[in-house]
Design goal:
42% of the residues lie in helices and 13% in strands. The protein is an alpha/beta fold. It binds NADP nicotinamide-adenine-dinucleotide phosphate. NADP nicotinamide-adenine-dinucleotide phosphate binds next to helix 9.
Length: 282
């Protein structure tokens, strides 16, 4: 595994395992398989409703806690200082741990400034090793960055060959904030795995399209968290550290950028409405 250093010196794996849409009854088995394959970064969120099963798998794996990099996220419903502190306690109880490696604000909605102050408190108390945000656009990120006491260490945003987010990643780099790509495969949509350009590059390197995509992320310095149910794909997705994409490959993939998401539009007011309405607990 390759690691990157966050702005506070904490080392984070460059490739991890994503757990969105892994239902609780499948989670424990998936996590045990992923840990068995060598994944050491697990990305979850309170809203994925699978923290308990991830906690059980981590305990059952017998892998020392310090070898596993655990990320969770506070949901919009729990925005605000006190609510976020409470949500954090629930997450670590579910995960059966006494600290998180990374705690993120899941969405830039609700009282996320209150949440950020709570994350700063948790960080200063040593209960989280790093803190950050998800889905923060450039202007929201800059505003938070300017007003934060502890600067965000990670922004987890949608990035894949159809949506490069070059301006946002450049700004984050200037702010010494690591960029983590969610949906690294565009959630499998728009026939990404049979795309002509990606298939041609895959043939050239004798690799799968999935490996070409993950290598592209890696060479751009992005931390990725692909999700798969399949153990053979878990292994395939990890095997990307022994080949190189060249300039020609990058130029070809550049053509695929459509410049916006086909999964979610964070600029749209209906997204703000929908995410504010989505409740994950009573
Ligand atoms: N912060 C946020 O707002 C946010 C939003 C979305 C996601 N995330 C995080 O990012 C993680 C990854 O994103 P995602 O789960 O949405 O989508 P993704 O990783 O881009 O794509 C997952 C899809 O790709 C398929 N797949 C995986 N490996 C493959 C391979 N080697 N060959 C062919 N197909 C393959 C999976 O199918 P199978 O499972 O059938 O193999 C699944 O359909 C999430 O799990 C979550 O942890 C965060």
């Amino acid at each position: 595994m390759e690691y990157t250093k966050l702005n506070n010196g904490v080392e984070m794996p460059m490739l991890g395992y994503g757990t969105l849409h892994i239902a609780p009854d499948r989670t424990k088995n998936c996590i045990l398989k992923a840990l068995g394959c060598g994944y050491r970064l697990i990305d979850t969120a309170a809203s994925y409703l699978n923290e308990k099963e991830i906690g059980m798998a981590v305990v059952e794996s017998n892998i020392p806690r310090k070898e596993i990099f655990l990320t969770s996220k506070v949901w919009v419903q729990d925005a605000g200082y006190e609510n976020t502190l409470k949500a954090f306690q629930t997450s670590i109880a579910n995960l059966q741990v006494d600290y998180l490696d990374l705690y993120l604000i899941h969405q830039p909605y609700g009282d996320y400034y209150g949440s950020w102050r709570a994350l700063e408190t948790l960080y200063q108390q040593g209960k989280v090793r790093a803190i950050g945000v998800c889905n923060f656009s450039r202007e929201r990120f800059m505003d938070l960055w300017l007003n934060a006491t502890v600067k965000p260490m990670v922004n987890q945003i949608e990035i894949h060959p159809f949506y490069h987010q070059d301006h946002t990643t450049a700004l984050l780099r200037k702010c010494d904030c690591a960029v983590q790509a969610w949906g690294p495969f565009n959630e499998g949509q728009s026939d990404i795995f049979t795309n002509g350009i990606l298939t041609e590059i895959a043939k050239k390197h004798e690799r799968s399209v999935a490996q070409i995509i993950l290598r592209w992320h890696y060479q751009r310095g992005l931390i990725t968290i692909p999700k798969t149910f399949s153990e053979s794909r878990m292994k395939e997705n990890l095997a990307i550290f022994d080949f190189n994409l060249d300039e020609e490959d990058f130029t070809m993939i550049k053509q695929l950028d459509i410049g916006h998401s086909e999964i979610i539009d964070h600029q749209c007011y209906t997204t703000a409405k929908w995410l504010n309405k989505h409740k994950i607990h009573d």
